[in-house]
Structure formats: structure tokens, C-alpha cells
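Repro:
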Amino acid sequence: MTLIKSISGIRGTIGGKVGDNLTPVDAVKFASAYGTFLKTNINVDRKLKVVIGRDARISGPMIHNLVVNTLIGLGIDVVDLGLSTTPTVEVAVPLEQADGGIILTASHNPKQWNALKLLNAKGEFLSGAEGAKILEIAEAEAFDFVDVDSLGEVTENNAYMDIHIDEVLELPLVDAEAVKAKKFKVVVDGVNSSGGIIIPKLLEELGVEVVKLYCEPNGHFPHNPEPLKEHLGDICKLVVEEKADFGIVVDPDVDRLAFISNDGEMFGEEYTLVAVADYVLSKTPGNTVSNMSSSRALRDITEKHNGSYQASAVGEVNVVKLMKATQAIIGGEGNGGIIYPEIHYGRDALVGVALFLTYLAGQDKTVAELRASYPQYFMSKNKIELTPQIDVDAVLKAIFERYQKEQISTVDGVKIDFASEWVHLRKSNTEPIIRIYTEAPTQIEADVLAERFVKELKSIAGI
């Protein structure tokens, strides 16, 4: 069973049986539930409006047509962005004065997956309570479609990638002229999705020479689309061959961002947020937020700039909620997700690229030297595949009881803070797995800690 319903949206693999996977029937059902939720909760004397965009997945056009026509059947007007990115749709919703938005993407998941990511009128992800209400509506199939004279209408707008780029370039902390003066050369891996269009366009606007790798938006991902070291051998090699200043990698919907240093080594997706936050905090001191599975390095950088750092539960909506509560000026997730409220409350690779380039333009350092200047932490990211027989809550409870004398948090799964290292164990919002993240002063220590807890989890679960 690979249909997952969570704060990250409705996500599943294409094909199979209704209710077990993301079939056409499921796409229609959840689009109907979302549209019904909007109609129930927004009391206005006009047709509602929803912005729709998708990444380049092979299943994208099919799911897109199903969702758009379902909303039309509910009497909701649709602004159709076509091929787009998650942050682009988030930017478009308030600019269109829309009542909500849907991004059709399974983010970093492989090509057999797709999903409906649901937004409110601010272009932000729905809360957990709102998501639960939509699931209730879907379960009850409490849909009321309109008559033929009240059908919604579709307006196509293909300009929003350019509009998004313009919004980024207008940010006060983005200095396009400083970047242009440096004549940077950058390799871009767009994983054959919409990032292969929008990231090169942004770079060209900033006067950067672009070397394209996998930038054809055909949905045939050339490697696992999660931007982790083990998937990125091609771009690491090409950065060195091209004598580029660095490399840029995004996931299929362009909300995650990873850099490759000029020496062909990973800058580290955890350090994307660290570097960008270092720049932002140097210009506008304030507070920061990341999730519990993110590096301690952001805390260190924030404190260096006399700010306060806090950690939220995993999930963009949780990060955003805590950012608003603490008036954080920048935040995000250690998976390469930058959230900069100056433009919008959503992870945005374009914002990260533009701010990083501006920062780099003002440094007399290579990207490798910049990376070496930061606090050195090393992470190990592992997972255990789940079967229906595994009682995840019972497994995590057993771990909690075993380590309850340590500094421990159960806000999101179980996180154990040891003196110089930590481990975070939690059930994924997006895949049928338990994630095991560790961090330590050396890679060996991080790997050893991870192996220890993988063995403990498997032993408790009986696998």
C-alpha cells in the first residue's frame, strides 16, 4: 500500500487498486475533497479560484487533467500554470488573489510517484487540522458538483516562471550587478524536470555561464531525484571537468537545493541553509528555525550573529508555524530547503540560489573554502522500509523507554541528544519508511551511531 495521506499532501504510486495507490479515481476524490473544503470554508459571493501547476513527471499531464476538470465540475475557476515549480505556485496564489493552490508533484520521490500538495489563499501549505478535514470529506465522499451553467473556467498562464524570477531578483539582499561582475560558471542538474528550465533562466538573468546537465523536462529522471551524494556522481565529475565555480542540484519540484563545491565534493545539503542564513543574518540579524532532523550548524551560525535558534517538528508547515511564532527572518529544512519570508513562506531553491550567489560574490573564497569555514558536523541519513505488520509507535516507544535518561524529545518521533552527537528516529510523512538521521563531529561517528540504531530498531521490530 503506497497511498500516503499526511501534512505533506496526498502522495502515492501511479496505478494499482483504488485506495491503495494514487489512481485516477483517488486523484479525483482528493481534488473533490479539497474543492469542497474550500467551498465550505470560504464564504464569498463569487466563484472560487485555484492555481494549479505541476512538475515534469510522466504521470503529470494525466493527474493534471483529472484535477483541473474535477475543480471545474465543482464550479471553481482554475489558473493553470502548466509546467511549473512548487515555489512558483506558492508565489502565484497570492498574486492571483486565488483561494488556494495545488501543486502536482511527489517532490524528491522517484518517477512512479505523484502527489497533490495543497495550499491555502496565502500560498502556504494547509495545517494538519485542515488536512484532516479534507481527508474526512474524501472518506465520506461528501461532494456536491454544480450544474452545467455553473461550471468553472480555466485560464492558462505560462508567465509565472518569469514572474517568480523577477520577484527573486527584486529582493533587497539579491545583488544582481555584483553577481554579474564575477562572471561565475555553474553546472546545473535539473533532474529532467522543471528545474531544468527555471534555474538556468535565473542564472542567465544574473549573468552566470550555465552548463546544463539533465535539464530536459521530460520526466525521465536520470538518477534518484533526491539530491543526496550517492545520486550525484555525474555532476560532481562535470563540475571539475568544466572548471566551474560550483554546481547546483534541485529536486523535481525545485523546493530543495544542494550545491557541489568547485572541487567536485558535496557542499552538503545541510549546509545550503547554513550558508544562506549566514549571509542573511550578516545583513539583517534575527532568529532562525529549522526542523529537528537538521544540522546543529544553523544553531551555531545563528548564535554567532546573536540570534536565537529553535527546532520544529519535521514538515514545512511545522517549520513555517514556528518561524511565524518566533519572527524568524530565515529558516527551512536541512534537506536543502530555504524559507525566506521576505518573498514567501515556502521552501524555494530560486531564492537560495540568488542569495548564495550574492554572498559568494562578496567573498574572496572558493565554494570549497567557504564550506570549510563553517562548523564541521557530519550526518548519516538512513531508513528502514516499513511493512503493515510493524507497529511503528510501539517501536519508537521502546526506544524512548530505553534512552529516557538522556536528553530526549518526542515532539516528532524520538530525538535523542547526546553530548556531542544526536539521533532522530521518525516515521516519514512522504514514504512508508522510518527515517534514522544522526549527526556527529566526524562521518565515522555519525555512521557508527546510525548503524547502532538501525540494528536496535530492527531488533525491536523483529525484522
